[in-house]
Write a structure and sequence with these properties.
The protein has 177 residues and is an alpha/beta fold. The protein has five helices and five strands, in the order E-H-E-H-H-H-E-H-E-E. The protein has a single domain, classed as Thiolase/Chalcone synthase (Peroxisomal Thiolase, Chain A, domain 1), CATH 3.40.47. The chain is globular, with a radius of gyration of 17 Å. InterPro entries: Thiolase-like.
């Protein structure tokens, strides 16, 4: 999943059809727990345990976003009372903040919506290009790219799916005389 300008430090996916563990502070949807679970797997593979602060950017890519929370907000709005927790979790950066806090990641946090969902087990090319830019910018030493797609309520798209890859800048070869 790396590009010519990046190298992969770790990769993970969440098995389709397997529900992610509950995530305290998030309700009514599997989207945020899915993002946190695949991020946890990838960061554990790359870093081991949470520890000292790391200059790692977080990049979430999802073409469909959190469909279940959007539906819960629509339903709540029809009753004219919005549970505050739903508003909080409707921001995709909320779960990224949770991951950053747990792992002490100090890089930029970005959420994008590519035009199409990535194939299962992959991250979209748009996200990889943005990861290259984040590394080139110098604000992070690594970028955790997460692609997450939640099944539509009709489940015609199949089960929820997520993949993550921890990237670093590729080593630059230097010419010698």
């Amino acid at each position: 999943m790396s590009t010519p300008r990046t190298r992969t430090l770790a990769a993970a996916h969440w098995p389709p059809g397997e529900p992610p563990p509950p995530l305290p502070g998030f309700s009514a949807s599997t989207f945020n727990p899915l993002v946190a679970a695949v991020a946890e797997r990838c960061l554990a593979a790359g870093y081991g345990e949470p520890g000292e602060p790391r200059r790692t950017a977080l990049l979430l890519a999802s073409a469909g976003g959190d469909r279940a929370t959007a539906l819960a907000i629509d339903t709540a709005a029809a009753g004219h009372r919005m549970p505050p927790l739903l508003f909080f979790q409707s921001n995709p950066n909320a779960v990224l903040g949770h991951v950053a806090s747990r792992w002490q990641l100090t890089g930029p946090v970005v959420a994008i919506s590519p035009p199409e969902a990535a194939a299962p087990g992959e991250v979209p090319p748009d996200a990889l290009e943005l990861a290259e830019l984040l590394l080139a910018d110098g604000d992070a030493d690594h970028v955790l790219v997460i692609a997450a797609e939640q099944a539509a309520p009709s489940a015609e798209q199949g089960p929820d799916q997520a993949a993550a890859v921890l990237l670093a800048a590729a080593a630059v070869a230097t010419a010698t005389a």
